[in-house]
């Protein structure tokens, strides 16, 4: 692995501008490696050809070209010209108070921190979300769907929702069985489905949400900050939370925080009933000795 250049350790205007450009787009794992190399090795990396950059990172030259296209450029030369232009920005555009990460792991955590700050802005006025959560609380059953990379967030929502809601059905696999389960939920009286879509939209998830809508179920979707039009078309309500894409695989810190906020608002929707269920759950935990060291004391 090449040594990080000193420029990557200082939040120069060019570094910040490039970082912000990269964060605005959904990059593949291979493209993230290229992006990280570019950031770590400024200004030298701005003067590499696509072939040289591919060789340094250990990817194919077409992968480098696809990165430029993903960022909105016609080809690598256009991206390279823009990169060099960013390096010539005046020093006054720098962000002197911004923490200076020393490695890619700190950079990833710094991005998570910025994502959480954006989330705080979204939740500054939670009135609309509270209204939706009241309706979620009244859906019996309440279906929660998240497949592939979205499954952990769906399971988190499902586990804690089940401690307060009388009938939660969590599904982490797509296909015909999921469609059958959604139809059964509708027949049992359910009115809402929570769909978790992070980071990409699997075709089977799109099919499931469309099927749910056709059944008459309403869909509440937790997704990343730039949902595709196809997802918006099958969602009654969309709640966005940005993911961190700095490392090879995504960090879902902000979506998990948003999921916790949704659970809290569902609890607030019927406080007395759900508080009783929480107390019943606590008693069950103590009586069954489910957790080590957990007692009434």
What's the layout of helices and strands?
Elements: H1 13-23, H2 29-40, H3 50-57, H4 61-70, H5 76-87, H6 104-122, H7 127-137, E1 142-145, H8 151-161, E2 168-171, H9 176-187, E3 192-197, H10 203-215, E4 218-223, H11 229-232, E5 237-240, H12 253-269, H13 271-287
Parallel strand pairs: 1-2, 1-3, 3-4, 4-5
How would you sum up this structure, described in words?
This protein has helices at 13-23, 29-40, 50-57, 61-70, 76-87, 104-122, 127-137, 151-161, 176-187, 203-215, 229-232, 253-269, 271-287; strands at residues 142-145, 168-171, 192-197, 218-223, 237-240. By secondary structure, it is an alpha/beta fold. It has 2 domains: 6-100, Orthogonal Bundle (Arc Repressor Mutant, subunit A), CATH 1.10.10; 113-287, 3-Layer(aba) Sandwich (Rossmann fold), CATH 3.40.50.10490. α1 packs antiparallel against α5 (76-87), α2 (29-40) packs across α4 and α7 packs across α12 (253-269). It is elongated, with a radius of gyration of 23 Å.
* Number of self-contained structural domains: 2
Please give the radius of gyration in angstroms.
Answer: 23 Å
CATH classification class of the largest domain: Alpha Beta
Q: Describe the sheet with the most strands.
A: 5 strands, parallel
| Structural class by sheet pairing and helices | alpha/beta
Intertermini distance? 53 Å
CATH architecture of the largest domain: 3-Layer(aba) Sandwich
In CATH terms, the superfamily of the largest domain is Glucose-6-phosphate isomerase like protein, domain 1
Please give the order of strands in the largest beta sheet.
Answer: 2-1-3-4-5
């Amino acid at each position: 692995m090449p040594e990080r250049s000193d420029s990557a350790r200082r939040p120069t205007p060019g570094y910040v501008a490039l970082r912000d450009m990269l964060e605005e787009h959904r990059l593949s794992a291979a493209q993230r490696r290229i992006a990280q190399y570019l950031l770590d090795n400024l200004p030298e990396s701005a003067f590499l050809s696509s072939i040289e950059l591919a060789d340094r990172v250990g990817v194919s030259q077409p992968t480098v070209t696809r990165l430029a296209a993903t960022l909105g450029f016609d080809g690598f030369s256009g991206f390279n010209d823009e990169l060099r232009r960013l390096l010539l920005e005046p020093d006054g555009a720098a962000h002197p108070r911004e923490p200076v990460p020393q490695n890619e792991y700190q950079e990833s955590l710094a991005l998570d921190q910025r994502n959480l700050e954006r989330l705080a802005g979204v939740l500054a006025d939670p009135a609309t979300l509270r209204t939706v959560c009241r309706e979620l609380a009244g859906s019996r059953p309440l279906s929660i769907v998240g497949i592939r990379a979205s499954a952990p967030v769906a399971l988190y929502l499902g586990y804690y929702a089940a401690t307060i809601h009388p009938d939660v059905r969590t599904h982490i696999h797509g296909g015909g069985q999921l469609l059958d389960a959604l139809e059964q939920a509708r027949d049992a009286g359910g009115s809402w489905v929570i769909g978790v879509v992070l980071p990409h939209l699997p075709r089977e998830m799109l099919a499931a949400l469309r099927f749910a809508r056709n059944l008459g179920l309403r869909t509440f979707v937790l997704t990343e900050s730039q949902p595709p039009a196809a997802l918006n078309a099958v969602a009654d309500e969309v709640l966005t939370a940005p993911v961190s894409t700095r490392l090879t695989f995504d960090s879902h810190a902000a979506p998990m925080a948003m999921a916790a906020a949704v659970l809290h608002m569902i609890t607030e929707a019927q406080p007395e009933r759900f508080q009783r269920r929480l107390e019943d759950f606590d008693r069950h935990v103590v009586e069954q000795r489910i957790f080590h060291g957990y007692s009434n004391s």
